[in-house]
Design a protein that fits this description.
about 250 residues, 7 helices, 4-stranded antiparallel β-sheet, about 35% strand, alpha/beta, 11 strands
């Protein structure tokens, strides 16, 4: 992975404050997890937002992330749960086992910025899947609203941090040649304090994704436009792929 693209993840407590309440993917993941037996693998698990609830349901999990600080926060939150936390690059996994179900949520697929990195990730996942194992992941849908985001400061959302409202703004610029969006996030706290972070995200188009998955040993079982299993349309905001390892 590109190791200089991690500003958004340098503060795991801030990450949890902004993201821990996001639950849209959990019902979907739990449904698929219930169909499996064996150790599940959560890739780019962060602080365990989607790992911990599945472990609380009784599943054995491995949570993998490249960020030591995020894993440290995850361990603090997951005392006495059946989770093994592993610090590894997802493009070069070496977990010494195969799993019936691997997932990567939070649009983490977009952190793999080159064709080579995407291929290495998918080959690594395929190698760690059981026969007929399932891989589920999501990515933002590259519609015009996403790719033509404002290059000037634009309001995105607000959240509460220690009882104070924080307003979040973004500045985005899309490089069509590389299919990479450069994003600056600006958090505006009360009393004038601001925090700026940057991140780059690779966008993949649906037909491109079909080829990429097929070439790396996957068949697509389902493609959805949201976690409620709605269809993928031109108005969708994300793509959710349910894939199976080819026989």
């Amino acid at each position: 992975m590109e190791l200089d693209n991690f500003q958004e993840y340098e503060d795991p407590i801030l990450y949890d404050t902004e993201n821990e309440s996001y639950l849209s993917d959990l019902v979907f993941l739990k449904k698929w997890a219930a169909k499996t037996e064996g150790t599940l693998i959560d890739l780019a698990c962060g602080t365990g937002r989607a790992t911990i609830p599945l472990a609380q349901d009784g599943h054995q999990l491995i949570g993998v992330d490249i960020h030591q600080q995020m894993l440290h926060q995850a361990k603090k939150k997951a005392v006495n749960l059946p989770i093994t936390w592993v610090e590894q690059d997802c493009t070069t996994l070496d977990l010494k086992l195969q799993s019936p179900f691997i997932y990567m949520v939070g649009n983490s697929f977009q952190h793999f910025l080159t064709n080579e990195a995407q291929t290495m990730l998918l080959q690594s996942v395929n190698h760690h899947l059981d026969k007929n194992g399932v891989f589920i992941f999501n990515a933002r849908f590259p519609n015009s609203e996403e790719l033509l985001s404002s290059s000037t400061e634009e309001y995105w959302k607000s959240y509460i941090d220690n009882g104070e409202k924080v307003d979040v703004y973004t500045i985005s610029e899309y490089d069509a040649l590389l299919q990479i969006q450069h994003n600056v996030t600006i958090r505006k706290y009360p009393h004038g304090k601001q925090l700026h972070t940057s991140i780059r995200l690779r966008y993949v188009f649906p037909k491109e994704m079909e080829r990429l998955l097929a070439e790396n040993g996957f068949e697509i079982l389902r493609v959805y436009g949201d976690w409620k299993e709605g269809p993928l349309t031109n108005e969708s905001m994300e793509m959710i792929y349910v894939c199976r390892k080819k026989k």
